[in-house]
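step 3/5: co-fold with NDP
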Amino acid sequence: MSEHLAGFFTPWILCALILALHLVLPARNVAGYVTDPETGEPLRYRLNGLLVLAVTVGLWAALSAGGVIPWDLLWRWRWEGLAGACTLGLAFTLLIVLRAPPTGKPLLAELYLGRLDNPQGLGGRVDAKMFLYLFGAVLLELNLLSFAAHHHLSFATPSPGVTLHTALFTWFVLDYLVFERVHLYTYDLFAERVGFKLGWGCLVFYPYFYAVGLWSTADLSGAPPTWLLVVAALVFFVGWSFARGANLQKFTFKVAPDRVFLGLFRPETVSDGDRALLCSGFWAISRHVNYLGEILMATGLVLALGHPLEPWPWLYPLYYLALLLPRERADDRRCAAKYGPLWDAYRARVPRRIVPGLY
Ligand code: NDP
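step 4/5: write tokens
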């Protein structure tokens, strides 16, 4: 097989490997937030993302250390890999959308947004959304490690910025997988369908575009000053505290409404007697402080690279702005429709959408 072809099929092979590991490795079996429309019961999920990541990265490291593959293989094959992932993403979209019954919307809209809400297969052992996110997270991590390896192999004095960027991004991936269950309570799970947006998004955009910072700077020399590394890590972890704190506090509230979060934040709410919305702790700062957190994390990741004047890495935080600003508006409309006057009361109590005091 030619190198190009091997590179093209690498994401396909990894997809098969990750699916096989997801199926055979032990998993937590948990109830989600979304209910099955037929039974009214919460959908169930098998979650073992952290284990799948550990085994895949372990395999990659063992094969590289044993000289079977070079450490920077995914860097060498990045363009072929991207092309292969694009094709996989398109094939997946066609398969998942066209095999499902039409919803009555225009075909292009169905292809983009999907027809099925929460497809599960193999006797409920695989949930399409959670598998897509798992694949995206694992391939992103392998890409980052491979791109960082390329930098380390290319320069006698590698940049500590590359190491910091890779370490922070690894934290981001691990954080998602450690709290995989919390993701069951997010917008993608309860409000989106599986089509091009989610399928191509997880198979291509997540593992390749999120690595745009390293992709565009791994070939550059020069070490960032220590103060910039400190600022980058601070911005990243302040962002992480906002995002993880808010998501975890809401999750705690949904599963145990009276529990004091982290032993610190008593759950204060606005309520109509029937339903309640949190307005203490992270949810008192703004109505989507978690989105601010994601944007700060992305900014910290760019700063860590130590090339703040390079334009390409900035595409990553810009993407979050483009994704999350409209998403906040859409979620606001959804909540206004769902909660009615209660949502107005909540908006009056917590007036800012994302940035405290500003927006
Ligand atoms: P949220 O987690 O903020 O979820 C919004 C939903 O939470 C609302 O629809 C409502 O649903 C419920 N809710 C809103 N306000 C309250 C409140 N005060 N009290 C109780 N429930 C409330 O947003 P997302 O699901 O969009 O995002 C989840 C996380 O994923 C965020 O951190 C986001 O930044 C992150 N994310 C990360 C991405 C990445 O690539 N890294 C991409 C996209 C998102 P209901 O009441 O019906 O339960």
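step 5/5: annotate
The mean pLDDT is 94.
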